[in-house]
Queue: 2 jobs
Job 1
Amino acid sequence: MSQYPALRLRRSRASAWSRRLHAETVLTPADLIWPVFVTDGEDEEPIAALPGVSRWGLKGIVDRAREARDLGIPCLALFPNTPHALRTEDGREALNPDNLMCRAIRAIKDAVPEVGVLTDVALDPYTSHGHDGIVDAAGYVLNDETSAVLTEQALVQAQAGADIVAPSDMMDGRVGQIRSALEANGHVNVQIMAYAAKYASAFYGPFRDAVGSRGLLKGDKKTYQMDPANAEEALREVALDLAEGADSVMVKPGLPYLDIVTRVKSAFEVPVFAYQVSGEYAMIEAAAAVGAGDREALVLETLMAFKRAGCSGVLTYHAPLAARLLGA
Ligand code: PBG
């Protein structure tokens, strides 16, 4: 039975003030986490695969933290491009308390303590083979050996001042081990944001250029990252990470996996974040460059979609642009 003409849903859309009044979802700069790349080299190194994104030296990275603060972006996510000479089979540079990551954390926390610092816990920017963990002779990433190293890596980052450690490696059991180590060492307020449902995705290509691991990577990451065919398994991953002490969970990549965001949010009612990854950024930039869409509108629409799907926040390379558009 039609209720028309008594009911006209277009009525509330007829003017800008009314559309604003009826908006079910809001997007603000406080919803954004800005992933930034750190280099030991030049102060600014543009990344060809990510037009508009650069790696920054320590001075530049502190400037980015100030920029985030001024734009109302609450948190930066740091990724180091470790000098190739320091990359080894076992990725031991990850445990050096004076490595590039730790120096960047300290520089930011000294200069701009009010901005949150999220650090990536995984070995891929430190290994000579580009995998996230310790590999055996056949190239298989060993779970328990890797978790033990990641636990130390997370501690080293917490010691340097990280506010949130974010294991992105997909080893089983590592969240619980990291939580215990943080507690045992007095880091009770260091949060864990678990990359709980991270898929073996074709959308990570530009990131691997940015951290210098693309040319090194042997094979793929399908024995640890998830199969894009699976959703139930994502719920099991999230359940485990929460039971082990994760404060928040992440779904990655972003836009192609919004169904996972919504299922996780409705099943667990916990803070869910999504990572709009490098390939998604590059897709928007490429579309805008050929006139297939308006760049700013594409950026804001995709970020709004994450919020509508149930995200508490989004990691996005478009964070500074979006924050500017949202009029911090
Ligand atoms: C690896 C890591 C990756 C990203 C974040 N952490 C790449 C990978 O798993 O190969 C990808 C982020 C992006 O593509 O923007 N620990």
Note: Residues 175 and 241 are 6 Å apart (CA to CA).
Job 2
Amino acid sequence: MLTSLFLLLGMFSLNTARTTLVIEAEQGKEPLIVYYGSREAAPADIATVRASGAKPQRAYPVYDMRVGELAIGNPAYALAVTQSDGAFTLDLAIENASVRRWENGEILEVVSRDKYYPVTVKNCWKSYEKEDLFETWVEITNGGKKDISLRRYYSGVLPIHKGNVHVSTFGGSWGDEARMVTAPLDNGIRLVRNIDGIRNAQSSHSEAMISLDGAPQENSGRVIGAALCWGGNYDLMFSTMAKHNYHWFLAGICPDNAEYHLEPRGTFTTPALAYSFSNEGLSGVSRNFHRWGRKYRLAHGDKERKILLNSWEGVYTRVSEPVLDKMMADWSELGGELFVLDDGWFGGKYKRTPTDCALGDWVVDKEKLPHGIPGLVQSAGRKGLKFGIWIEPEMTNTKSELFEKHPDWVLRPLHHAPIYGRGGTQLILDFTNPEVQDFIFGVVDGLMKQDPGLDYIKWDCNASIGAAGSPRLKYQSHLQAEFWAGFKKTLDRIRAAYPDLTIQTCSSGGGRASWGILPWFDEFWVSDNSDACQRVYMQWTASYFYPAITMASHISAVPNHQTGRVTSMKFRIHVAMSGRLGMEMQPKDMNPEEKELVREALVQYKRIRPVVQFGDIYRLHSPYEDGKFSSLMYCSEQKDKAVFYWFRLDNDRTHHIFPAVPMAGLDPNRNYKVEELVRGSSKPCAFEGKVFSGKFLMEHGLEMPYVHAEGKTEWSSHVLYLQAQ
Ligand code: GLA
């Protein structure tokens, strides 16, 4: 009955477990969004409201005569085309709409054609039923005999009904990635425009949280989260006009300097915009993205990550066989599983000791490592460790044999001097060039052929494309599209050849924390800033869209190398245990007590690893709220196990009371036994070994003591493991 009413009205209702998206697609008209929100509130009422004449919003407004109709001057259009005769407008009408099933949902395709020009636009929506998530993207086809050009070609649009709408976006800089900025939406344009080109998450993330019920809440209220799955330049645009009932949210490739010329019979497919609705607050949206990401967008999202020691902050480029051997022996003794050799191991004519040369010359520096990488892999193996290695294969230095041989392999403006990256000598290889694609594939292939035992690669990328160009391109404005096509082709080839390799994406820290990149990677380095206190903030914001399994989170030395801050070993361990645990320091510099604590941490992390890496996140108390403390937890899908974290962030002794944090995500009808993990010499907290009902824990929570062993209050922290009885 309902279905037939929907069909009569040309409406397609895509359902996920808890949400519904209704698109109206009547022949001869344009696609409209009738509804997006919770499933319970949806079907019958929507049809009735629509039948009573309510006006739905444009699902993909294009630059046409109706742009003015939206509200005078509203710039919220997603597609703008220059026709072959120079005309600027489109006038699209739906030709057909169809739905088909895939294993976890449906795909709706609405094909529209211009009434005069041979331009076709296919809007696609794909539902992920179990994860309550949609992806939308667009395919634009030139059916004519001459080129047309795309002046704007966004991936998707969401009209957001006005009310008390707040938007959170995430941005920062090197060492301070992903700070959250929240503000109510007001008249005008709010634009996150990223033109870095390659390290695109360092300055701003391609994600936004849209809270519909006032200031964002972690565990209540209606929220839409959206992520553009693209590694290059992008726009997230919010447009609000006083005379219109809706805010407009649009996202896609940044069209600035990127006009795309579409040849006859050519099709341009935009990246996907993923979005999810939850009425369980920001954390509800995060859980949906985490589940979707682990299953569909992350390499090996179902495999536990190993606990690794990375050599960078321990020895920087001062690598040598005896030093690495000792580090590996210590790491093995502490219970580690994987050792990663960072920068400094390579170079022929130019030795990689300062970081301003040798990128591209991926031959081992025999003076430092006489037995090469195979010697180290074998040594690691004898100690029961897997081995991994750092490379930066998309880059070169002017001081390198590669650059001397192939000066034309780099991105640069056609007739102007390039801007050099790190060390004043770094340039980006031109991924549009098939020879470069082969070379980059060969870097990984060469290492793997030489040593099939390699388990892990840290793939770094320390530069921005900015205004560079490529002499190979007919149109410089195609650089983004062609560069990323080359990247995708090469990474696909690497993944096909080495499907089991673990690959971390690092880009001067968290510059590639993006769902546009992670399909080929297993995790990302959150930030070069390894200060545990700052990591509490950065990992909190990263967790809005990325699950703990993706977040490389390492215990580092004090005073911290980036901030100089001194925090307790216990605090550093606890923070690192809330992500993918690792270590980034010289183990030999630790005292026996610290070593004992790390040893215990590794034992305990192995126990909680499935809950942390595959569990559902519930953020409880934001560090942004008052800067005093932060708390979050992960619960297993069956709700039989949970890990609770509590970090004190200030040392203000006038605040002697820290109210209990009500927990979340537990089963109210089950009882949970509390076990405190890695408490060092601190006395067990009063709740150790006690059993509490899920209901009590979620309504009241436990008041955490904030004084630790030595009577100090600074950097007190707790990790509680809750197991259902
Ligand atoms: C970048 C990375 C670091 C480290 C260095 C090595 O800065 O973000 O983690 O790998 O390069 O040069």
Note: Residues 2-297 form a domain with the Beta-galactosidase; Chain A, domain 5 fold (CATH 2.70.98.60).
